[in-house]
Amino acid sequence: MNTLECIKTRHSTRKFKSEPVAKELLDTVIDAGRRAPTGGNLQPTHFMVITNPDVLKELVTLVQEEYGKTEVTEQTPPYMVNIIKMSKEGKFVFHYNAPALVVLAHKPVLANNFSDAACAMQNMMLACNELDLGCCWVNQLRHLQDNERLVARLRELGMGDDEKVYASLSVGYPDLPNGLNRRELDIKGNPVTYIG
Ligand SMILES: Cc1cc2nc3c(=O)[nH]c(=O)nc-3n(C[C@H](O)[C@H](O)[C@H](O)COP(=O)(O)O)c2cc1C
């Protein structure tokens, strides 16, 4: 697959097989993320690759419990209402039961954290497409980046004392009839102005 085809057909996967991702494939995805450009070439992103099922379950429970504490108000964005409701019912599985979760952490003082994380995420998502893996950007750990419980647990798992989560990616084999998950996105937004 060439690069433009890979960009055009990349598509988020939200249903995964429980089968663990082959180590060499996961390593290739992480390598693609590490090769992404970073502001000032500082290469500050810490890639935490979680494949331990008990740890993944624990994070799901933590997210459910923390989101479940939120009360729905008129200000709650519509997409959050269902997530909060499902969390209160213990049904919200933020990483879609993917067998691998790549958590990107950065030192909070760096100005380009979001941009650096986004470049790494896009590289990893394209690598997944090339390798017939499914993936989905899942933002809940980033939303909880200042949550004391999450921070404490991730520190136990190896996140630096001065690091915070900026993005995370679920990775696994798509649980779909043909085993692949590709499509061309219908582009209705993202306007372009050419000034010639
Ligand atoms: C910054 C960002 C945050 C996202 N957060 C989530 C998320 O928390 N859960 C989810 O299911 N998808 C999430 N997505 C995936 C988008 O919903 C998805 O990319 C978009 O709907 C376009 O669909 P496609 O990826 O299949 O082309 C996120 C994507 C981005 C770029």
Structure description:
It comes from Veillonella tobetsuensis. GO terms for molecular function: oxidoreductase activity. InterPro entries: Nitroreductase, Nitroreductase-like, Nitroreductase/BluB. Pfam families: Nitroreductase. Keywords: Flavoprotein, FMN, Oxidoreductase. There is one protein chain. The protein contains seven helices and four strands. By secondary structure, it is an alpha+beta fold. The model has no long low-confidence stretch (mean pLDDT 95). The protein starts with a helix and ends in a 24-residue tail after the last strand. Helices cover 39% and strands 13% of the residues. It has a single domain (14-172), classed as NADH Oxidase. The chain has a four-stranded antiparallel β-sheet with strand order 1-2-4-3. The radius of gyration is 17 Å and the shape is globular. Helix 1 (3-9) packs across helix 5 (113-130), helix 2 runs antiparallel to helix 5 and helix 3 (53-68) crosses helix 4 (78-88).
Write the layout of secondary structure elements.
Blueprint lengths: L2 H7 L13 H12 L11 E5 L2 H16 L9 H11 L11 E7 L6 H18 L3 E4 L2 H4 L4 H9 L7 E9 L24
Bound molecules: flavin mononucleotide.
Within the largest sheet, what's the order of strands? 1-2-4-3
| Strand content bin | 5-15%
The CATH architecture can be given as: 3-Layer(aba) Sandwich
Mean pLDDT: 95
Bound ligand species: flavin mononucleotide
Biggest sheet overview: 4 strands, antiparallel
CATH level-four homologous superfamily name: NADH Oxidase
Helix content: 25-40%
CATH topology: NADH Oxidase
CATH class: Alpha Beta
Gap between N and C termini, in Å? 33 Å
Total of domains: 1
- Given the C-alpha coordinates, what overall shape results? globular
Low-confidence regions: none
Specify Rg, calculated over alpha carbons.
17 Å
Keywords: Flavoprotein, FMN, Oxidoreductase
Pfam family, one: Nitroreductase
InterPro entries: Nitroreductase, Nitroreductase-like, Nitroreductase/BluB
GO molecular function, one term: oxidoreductase activity
